[in-house]
């Protein structure tokens, strides 16, 4: 048994684990679950699930349906996440900068942070035009096969990158990529300072991504423009113009400046 296993045994908190298991299970359900369904899916006994659900309802993390037979997540976790000061500050600072970028570039832009093995989109602004592509706020996007993910991984210490890759789980439709190809990608992105690559999710889109750097030079977030080129007579900013605008936006939000 290694040190991590010893630590896992030493710090066991079965009741906490059960409560968290329920919250994680309910987070994946659109219409809630009955107590019997929760008990069966988690492989627990009915009485412990009853006690746990009663506490989660009392603390307002879980709500009962009006009929009283189904349980679903309340908005409490969502509210807590958005009260979290660093995230809240990042979103508050980023949105005006993103809005100015979207207006000038005539493209949409989104901001993603690392979250449990993939990326979470925490802010999104549409371009001003009739047409555009946007990534839904709150979406989880792949760590491996997106511009946001590659940039996030490129600007980490080797140790942190390994931890993130070990935590990674594939999202729906994700393309598996060879590790040697990924390592070469990270080196190139670090040298260039950004990523510009055809989207691996949507045909006709070029993802341009810059990191938001923390004080130590590691990426704390990734700012991405899914660039769509106009083919009618309207002359919109070119991809080179958009890349320069995105670079300036990311630099203004980074904590590490040249």
UniProtKB/TrEMBL annotation:
Pfam families: HTH_IclR, IclR_C. Residues 13-75 form the HTH iclR-type domain. Keywords: DNA-binding, Transcription, Transcription regulation. One of its GO terms (biological process) is negative regulation of DNA-templated transcription. Residues 76-258 form the IclR-ED domain. It comes from the Bacteria. GO terms for molecular function: DNA binding; DNA-binding transcription factor activity. This is IclR family transcriptional regulator. The lineage of its organism: Bacteria, Pseudomonadati, Pseudomonadota, Betaproteobacteria, Burkholderiales.
